[in-house]
Specification:
Layout (H helix, E strand, L loop, with lengths): L4 H12 L6 H20 L5 E5 L1 H5 L8 E7 L5 H14 L4 E7 H10 L1 H7 L3 E5 L1 H37 L17 H6 L10 H18 L8 H10 L5 H27 L7 E4 L2 E4 L2 E4 L11 H12 L5 H10 L9 H11 L5 H10 L2 H5 L3 H4 L13 H13 L8 H10 L10 H15 L4 H12 L3 H8 L5 H11 L2 H18 L6 H18 L14 H8 L4 E5 L2 E7 L4 H11 L2 E10 L4 E10 L7 H12 L5 H12 L13 E5 L7 E8 L4 H11 L3 E10 L2 E9 L9 H17 L1
Length: 750
């Protein structure tokens, strides 16, 4: 009896709601249900077979997957009518369908010219109709692939590289693409058809479970595990929290990616290397980095690192035999390490980006944790906010790789590489990651055999790895007090050089919002001024850049002036409370983030404000509209509150986010400078947040003299140099408490 589309929809709905059915089991059950229905649609037909291919052919039918089928026939003239009897009910049921109608010969001919079709037919599975016809197609498609797979390798290699470039890493990204990403389900499937002995079935099943749960939760064919879906998917799969879910996803993605890398490194190898000795115990043999016949891994703890350094240097892959021996025989490096072991690690890290896949290989074989037991705590550990692109372990490797390009800037390249590798190691343990990291690195540095002064430098690098970017972006570097504070913390020129290089390497490894020309310029200028102070030059107060003679002339006209030049907006207007807030709110209304701002006023009641801005979403605004709206806002002719509320609602999903947004905090510092009180505000990023903060400051009768605004992915960290009506620091503790209360109320009430 034929099942109607409505009956199938009901059956599918019941299956989707069946408790305890997930992952591969769900996919098989759904594929079986689809088989039964399609079989009823085809009925008893001779010379025709309905064949499932691709994911449906594998029995991996996720909740919102396409039905990928081929209607195979032996030349029947009425095949079009047969096809319509199947296709139309599928469409009526609301399912996505990828279909074709071909003879066996036609299907094979397509597979000789179309890589996707060739791969799809390797999963061919009889669903209904003529079993012999379906079997003939499956057998001949497999035989054809076995004869032609080498021919397909260049094109397959190109498509894999392009896919990885587009979708990036499953293992290390905040929001991984489970199917197409590097180390995802597509790569796991490819390992079934490439010459590989790798078994990634367990990793594959983890990813499939998550993909099925994501489809069920989103009710659409969503394969990118978005941040906002992670908590719900984790709960659906029985995880205690989403961090554990993402750690499993990362581990699965790593296993698949590493197996794929191993296969592709051998398939892609075309270079002709001469056999020879590369390093003690390490040789190049048959295009692979291998162990020489005299090597004794059991008594040579640095051998794996020396071999890895040669893999990174030459580009030749590890021999499988060498890897297996190293994994089994290499001992832990002891306490303290020998100079050879420490030097081998530094040499490997110094290879830069080429070291990352090597270290990943060593990690997959358990050798990295044997070297650094603390690594186990950061392995595959997610950082679930939009500021960080990578898991903690990958972030550390990326930082070290970036640091390798900066070695000529520092007097101690070895400490830069080791500090880069270890600067965030505390994130794997409870407590403040910097404080915990300092204790860990003190122990690790001593275990590495470093002398006490070098260990102290490593600890200082961990303690102060955020010092330069925080001071540059949150404090006034024109203020001598800022330079004195940083110089006192750093202590000496060599440590300053290491911190400056670490700042750049760390920021580049963090994400696109963490480093740019503006921040790089601020950090560079700060470092240069601190260096001069460390050399004995007392920092001098920098002459105020506001107001310039041009500003004075404009203020003398006693009119509102709004000028734009590149990313700088200058506003001249009568000085009054809330002036800064109105301009900041208007800029936010037009999708502009304020990076910094400076304010000056004249004795006759005029003010000049200069804002450095950048587009929040990448595209430049219509500047004539911006300047016109600023003038309207200053004249009280723009409903800023209402407009910002509406914009926040429309653009909420486009702002960066975090799994657990930080609670707003207000920190007040009266020691940072003698000229003003610094009010630092940390809050989740949102449209109009700067407007709400500065309006609260205005309501508290405070004038903003300078603002430094940083957006750290999901969070803003804004610092305001404020004075009271008389232009003095705010010393009254009750007043300061009310300022804090007003800001927090403005942020939380929104």
């Amino acid at each position: 009896m034929t099942t109607t589309p409505s009956e199938f929809r009901a059956q599918r709905s019941a299956l989707l709601q069946e408790a305890g059915l997930s992952g591969p089991a769900f996919c098989r059950a759904y594929a079986s249900l689809a088989d039964s229905w399609l079989g009823s649609l085809l009925g008893d037909e001779r010379g025709v077979a309905l064949v499932a291919v691709g994911g449906y052919g594998r029995g991996e039918l996720a909740p919102c997957s396409d039905l990928d089928v081929v209607l195979v026939h032996d030349g029947r003239k009425d095949i079009g009518e047969v096809a319509e009897r199947i296709w139309y009910p599928i469409w009526d049921a609301g399912l996505a369908l990828d279909h074709s109608v071909r003879t066996v010969k036609q299907a094979l001919a397509v597979a000789t010219a179309d890589l996707k079709a060739a791969l799809g037919l390797l999963e061919a599975r009889w669903v209904a109709g003529d079993v012999g016809l379906a079997g003939e197609l499956a057998t001949r498609a497999t035989e054809q692939w076995q004869k032609q797979w080498k021919h397909w390798m260049p094109r397959l290699d190109e498509s894999v590289r392009a896919r990885h470039a587009e979708f990036e890493e499953v293992a290390f990204l905040l929001e991984p693409e489970l199917k197409e990403g590097r180390g995802g389900l597509r790569d796991a499937h490819l390992l079934r058809v490439l010459p590989s002995t790798a078994d990634v079935s367990a990793a594959h099943d983890v990813l499939l479970r998550v993909r099925v749960a994501l489809h069920l939760r989103a009710d659409r064919a969503l394969d990118r595990l978005l941040l906002q879906e992670q908590d719900a998917v984790a709960a659906d799969l029985g995880y205690a929290d989403a961090d554990l879910l993402m750690a499993d996803v990362a581990a699965a993605g790593r296993a698949v990616a590493w197996a794929g890398d191993d296969v592709w490194s051998r398939l892609r190898t075309k270079a002709k290397w001469k056999n020879g000795v590369l390093a003690p115990g390490v040789v190049l043999r048959g295009g692979e980095v291998a162990l020489d016949t005299e090597a004794r891994p059991a008594s040579d703890p640095g051998l794996a690192l020396r071999a890895g350094a040669q893999v990174a240097r030459t580009g030749a892959p590890f021999s499988r035999e060498a890897l297996d021996r190293l994994a089994v025989e290499v001992p832990d490096p002891g306490d303290p390490w020998s100079d050879d072991v420490r030097g081998a690690l530094v040499a490997l890290l110094g290879a830069g980006p080429a070291a990352i896949p090597v270290l990943e290989t060593l990690d997959q074989k358990g050798l990295l944790v044997r070297l650094l037991p603390e690594w186990a705590a950061v392995r595959s550990k997610p950082q679930r906010n939009a500021y960080h692109r990578f898991t903690v372990d990958r972030h550390l490797l990326e930082t070290a790789a970036n640091a390798a390009a900066l070695l000529r800037r520092v007097a101690r390249p070895d400490l830069l590489l080791l500090g880069a590798l270890l600067h965030d190691i505390g994130k794997g343990f409870p407590g403040d990651h910097t404080e915990v990291g300092m204790d860990l690195v003190a122990a690790v540095g001593a275990r590495m055999g470093l002398p006490k002064p070098d260990v102290d430098v490593l600890v200082a690098m961990v303690r102060h790895h955020l010092l330069l970017p925080d001071a540059a972006t949150r404090r006034d570097i024109d203020d001598p007090a800022t330079i004195e504070t940083v110089a006192e913390a750093v202590g000496d020129r060599d440590t300053l050089e290491l911190l400056a290089a670490l700042t750049e390497a760390d920021s580049l490894a963090t994400g696109p919002s963490a480093w740019g020309a503006w921040k790089a310029g601020l950090v560079s200028e700060l470092a240069a001024r601190v260096a001069r102070r460390l050399e004995g030059d007392a920092p001098a107060a920098q002459a105020s850049t506001l107001p310039t003679p041009e500003h004075v002339a404009l203020m003398a006209q006693r009119e509102v002036v709004v000028q734009q030049d590149g990313d700088r907006l200058t506003v001249v207007a009568p000085d009054r409370p809330g002036l800064f807030a109105r301009v900041a709110g208007t800029l936010s209304l037009h999708g502009l983030d304020v990076r910094s701002a400076a304010v000056a006023s004249s004795d006759d009641g005029m003010a000049v404000e200069v804002f450095e801005v950048e587009p929040a979403f990448g595209s430049q605004p219509e500047w004539p509209r911006v300047t016109a709206d600023v003038e309207r806002a200053l004249g009280g002719r723009l409903a800023l509150d209402a407009r910002l509320t509406e914009r926040a609602r429309v653009y909420a999903r486009r702002r960066a986010s975090a799994a657990r947004p930080a609670e707003p905090r207000v920190l007040i510092d009266n020691d940072a400078t003698s000229a003003a009180t610094v009010v630092e505000v940390r809050a989740p990023d949102d449209v109009g947040v700067l407007y709400r903060i500065t309006r609260a400051l205005a309501d508290a009768d405070l004038d903003v003299r300078r603002a430094k605004v940083s957006t750290l992915g999901h969070e803003v960290v804004d610092a305001f140099y404020v004075v009271d009506r008389e232009g003095r620091k705010v010393e009254d503790q009750e007043h300061l408490a009310e300022v804090e209360r007003a800001i927090l109320d403005a942020l939380t009430r929104h």
